TrEMBL record:
Signal peptide: none annotated. GO terms for molecular function: protein-N(PI)-phosphohistidine-sugar phosphotransferase activity. Keywords: Phosphoprotein, Phosphotransferase system, Sugar transport, Transferase, Transport. Residues 4-148 form the PTS EIIA type-2 domain. One of its GO terms (biological process) is phosphoenolpyruvate-dependent sugar phosphotransferase system. One of its GO terms (cellular component) is membrane. Its EC number is 2.7.1.202. This is Fructose PTS transporter subunit IIA.
Amino acid sequence: MNKEIFNEEHILFDTTSTTQDEAFKSIASFAFEKGYVSDKEEFYNGLKQREEEATTGFKDHIAIPHSKNKAVLKPGMFLVKFANDIPWNALDQKDVKVGFALTIPEEGATEHLKLLSLIARKLIDNQFREGILNENEPNKLAEIIDEISF
């Protein structure tokens, strides 16, 4: 995995969110703190707007929230592990425990649709999915995510 897109410092252990709205605020604040978005409110609104179009809840407790908007400064991927199960309206109706959050610049979206596709494809792999759900050591999580070739 390209270290500019994802590295161990892009892992957030969110211990406070209990709703999807709180999760989006947490993701937007984290992306802002890491310098990937210029305006956390704008990015938060983008996440909400994207979710209204169609759920980003994938399956087996994993979601891929993302937003392509003008607040995004550079492409990035953030792994968010939620301490609380988050009601998400996922495809399988299961609450979300892990999010792969993506910041997608307005330009270059094609490359990031490729990343979105690679993540979704990798999530079909039981060993990868279980590793992401069960591992809590940042360096081991980063190793698992590095299996995604991007």
